[in-house]
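User: My advisor, Dr. K., asked me to get a structural model of this assembly before our group meeting. I'm new to this, so sorry if the format is off. These are the inputs:
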Amino acid sequence: MGIKKRKIIELEDAVVKFAGDSGDGMQMSGTQFSDTSAFVGNDISTFPDYPSEIRAPQGTIAGVSGFQVRIGSKDIKTPGDLADVLVAMNPAALRTNLKWVKQGATIIIDSDSFDEKNYQKAGFTSDPLEDGTLDGYNIVRAPITYLNFTTVKELGLDSKTAEKTKNQFAVGILYWLFDRNLEYGEKFLDDRFKSKPALAEANKKVLRAGYHYAETIETLESRFQIIHKEERKGKFRNITGNTAVAWGFIAASERSGRPLFLGSYPITPASEILQELAKRKQLGVKVFQAEDEIAGINSAIGASFAGNLGVTTTSGPGLALKSEAIGLAVITELPLVIVDVQRGGPSTGLPTKTEQGDLLQALYGRCGESPAVIISASSPSDCFDYTYMACKIAIEHMTPVILLTDGYLANGSELWNIPKIADLPPIVPPLVPDNTPDFKPYRRDPEKLNRFWAIPGQEGLRHRIGSLEKEDVTGFVSHDPLNHEKMVRLREEKVQRVANYIPELKVWGEPTGDLLAVGWGGTYGAMISAVQDLQQQGKSISLAQFNYLKPLPRNTEAVLKGFRKIIVCELNLGQFAMYLNALYPQFKYLRYNKIQGLPFMIEELKRKFNQVLEGKE
Amino acid sequence: MAATNETSSAQPALTRNDFRLDQPVKWCAGCGDYAILSAVQNALPEIGMKKEDIVFVSGIGCSSRFPYYINTYGFHGLHGRAAAVASGIKIANPELSVWIVTGDGDSMAIGGNHFIHILRRNLDVNILIFNNKIYGLTKGQYSPTSPKGLKTKTSPDGTIEPPFIPGELAMGAQGTFFARAVDTEPKQMTDIFIKAAQHDGTSVVEILQNCVIFNNKIHQEITGKDVKDDRIIYLEHGKPMIFGTGRDKGLILRNAGLQVVNIGENGITEEDLLVHDAYTPDIALHYLLTRMNYPEFPVATGVIRSFPCEPYDQALERQVIRSMEESRIKTLEGLINSGNVWQI
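Assistant: The format is fine. Below is the predicted structure of the whole assembly, which you can bring to the meeting.
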C-alpha cells in the first residue's frame, strides 16, 4: 500500500494556530503541541486568545477560542505575527482567523462542520470553500467529526464525551505534519486525564488516528521540518507569565526568610497567580481570598506589618480599587508588592485582551504625593525575575512596588531555563533586634533611606504606625507643616534612590545612531525582533526596552541623547512617552501606539521604523 | 518624653501601667472613649498574653485613634478597612492577640463588607465597636446606627433610614461572639473585654458610647443612673434573666417571643425565668435578646453569645502544616524541577 514520499520543507520556525469553539479543547491542544515541540528541543512561544464569555453559543464568532504557538530552532521571542498552519474547527474559527494567516498557509478544517447553518452563524454569505475565499491557501478538508466518531465508537463513549476528543484528530494531523513524537503526545494525555484513564485512551486513539490519516491522504503534499541550528543546553520547562509571577514570589520568600502571604481577589487575567499560590501550602504559602480588592491589599499590608512578605495581585480595575491602600503602604513604609496584570480598559473594558493602559495609574493614581516603585516584566519567563526583584526592592527599601505585567505575558508561555534558587541575589530584610535601645519606628538607613522593620511579637519594640502623617524619626502623629514637607520629600527621595540599586538601561545595538526604538514591559518580544531584523538589513536602529519605570535607570538620559530620533512604542495612547517628555523635555518623542487589545506585530513595527528612518515621519 | 519601650527582662505580672503611653490623648473632654481606653488597659493584664504579642488595629474616626493611645503594637489604617488589615496580621501570625477598634460609621457603613466577612470566617480577633450613633470626626452627620428621625447636619428634617443594630448584623453574618457594654460601666466593660479575648473566634463587643459634642446623651434614656436598672438587663451565662431596681422583673419566652414579666405577679417566680445560655450554638434566642430595645424591653448587655467554633486562622494553619508534612516537595527548587522538565 505504499505511502507517497512527501516533499520536506525546512523552516527556522513555524507558527501554528488552533481555533475552534470555546469548548473544543483548543487551549489543551495548543499546550500539548507546544510541550511536545519543547521536548524535542525547539524553542516555543505561545499566546492563547480566548473570549471573555465562558461558552458563547456554539459556532458563533463570539465563541471562538484560539491558541497560537511558534516553534523554532533558534531563540524565539514572540508567538509570531501570522500563522503558517491554521486549524479551524468550524467556519467561525476560519472567519475570525483568516486575517492572521500567511498567504499560502496550510489550513486544516473540519469539513463536517462546514455547512449552511454554520456559515450563517459565522457570518459568511456564501460557502467559503467554494467562493474563492480560500484561493491561494493549502486547504486540508478532513471530515474530523465523522472520523473521530468512528474511532471512538467501539470504546462505547456517549456522544457528548466523544465530541470532546475530536481536537485530538487535528492534533494528530499536526504531529504528522511537523514530525512530532507521538509518544510524548500520548504521555501528555495520560497526565492530563490521570483520573480518567478511559478518556485518556480515547484521546490517544484519536490522536493516532489523526496522525495516520495525515500520513495516508494525498492532500498533504509536504511536511515541515524545523531545522536544527542553535545548540542550547540546560534544564527547561514551559512557563506562563502568571505562573512565573507566583514562583517569583515564593523564591523571594525563601531567599528573604519572610513567609509569603497573598491577599487577593479573583480577576481576569490575574486569577491564575492566586490559584497557583493557593496550591502551594506545602511551601508554607498562605493565601487569603478576600471579599474584595480592597480587603485583598489591606490584608497584605497587615501581613507585612506582622513580618510576612505581603503581596497582592490584580488587574486594572482592581488597581483602581486598591489605590487608597497603596497610599497607606507608602505612608506606613511597609514592604508590599502589587502585581497588575494589565488588560484592555477603561472600566471592565476587554477583560481577556492585553493592553498597557495602566502605567499612569500606577505612577500617579493616588491621593497626595504618593511615590511607589514601578517596574514591568517583558516576557512570560522574566515575570519570575521581575517579581523577585519587586520583592527584593519592596523588602530592602521598605516601600510598595507595583509590578506591571499584561494579559499577553500572563497567559502566554515560553521555555524557561530553570534557575538555581541559591544563585538568585540575596534579599536582606532591614530587621531590628529585640530590645534595641531607643528604637524609633521612623529612623532611617542613611543610604537607602528606608525605615526598619520591627515586627509585632518582638520584645522591646512596641510602636504604632498608621495612615496619619508621622513625625520624622519618632513616628508620632504630626501635623507640623515643615515636618510634612520633610516627610513627603524623604518618601520621594527614598524611591528615587532605588535607582542606585537597579541595573542600567541596556541598549540593543549601537549606543548612537539614527533611531532609538523605545518600549517598556511586555512589548519586548516584538520590539527586539523588529529592531534586529532591521539591524541585519544595515539600518541604524537600536532598542531601549524599559523594565524599571520609577525610578528610571540612571543612564536613561545618556541613552536617549545618543540618537537623532526617538520613537516610543506602546499599547496605549502614549503614556510612557508623556512620562519621558515630562522628565526629559529636551528630546522629541515620536509615538507609535496601538490600542486594539492585541500585541504589536513585528511587521507593523518594522514598517513604522522604516517610515521614520526614511524621513517620512 | 520618649515613649515606652523599656527593655524587658523576666516577665513580672503586668499591670495597667504597662499599657499606658505618655503621649497626650486627644479625645474631647468628657468623651466616652476615655473610659473604654481605661477598661481595656485594665483588661489586658488579665488575658494571659505578653505585651509584645498584642496588636491594636483601627480604621478611621474618633475611636480609631485608639492605637495611638495604648502601649502595644498598633496600626491605624484606612476608613472601614481595619478588619482586612487585622485579618492579614492574624493570619500571618496566629499567636498574636489582635484587637480591632472601630466605630459605627467605620464598621457599619464604609467597612460593612469587611465586617460581615470577618465574622463569616470567624477569624480569632476582638472587635470593639464604639457606637455613638453619629459621625464625630467629620463633625456631626448621621450614621448607620442613628435612630430614625434623628436630626443631624445631613438630616435636618430627621433621618428617614432605619438603623442597623450591630448585634443583629453580627448574628446575620454567623458571628460566634457578641457582647454589649456601656461606657459608664467600667467594671462590666473590663470583664466583657476579658471574655472577648478568651473566645476562640471573632468577638464583637458593641459599646454604647457617648459623644459629648455631637450626640450628647444619646444613650441616656437607657444608661442614665436613675433609669438603667429598669432599662438594662445584664446577662450572665447560667444565671436567670432578671433585672429591675428591685430585681423584680425578668424575661420569659412566650409565643416564640420574649416577654417581660414581674416576679410575684400572676404566679411568676424566679424559677419561671429564662436562664442565659451564652454557649449554645442555637442563635434564635441570642438574636431575640440582641434586638431587645427600650421601651418595650430592657436593652441586653453582657455576653449575649459565645459559641466556640474553630477560627479561620487555626484552620488555615492546620491545612498548611498538613500540606507541608504530606508533600514530597519541600522547596521551590523541588517544585520548579518537578513535572514537565526537559534536559536539553
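One thing worth pointing out at the meeting: Chain A has three domains: 7-226, 237-502, 507-613.

User: Perfect, thanks a lot.
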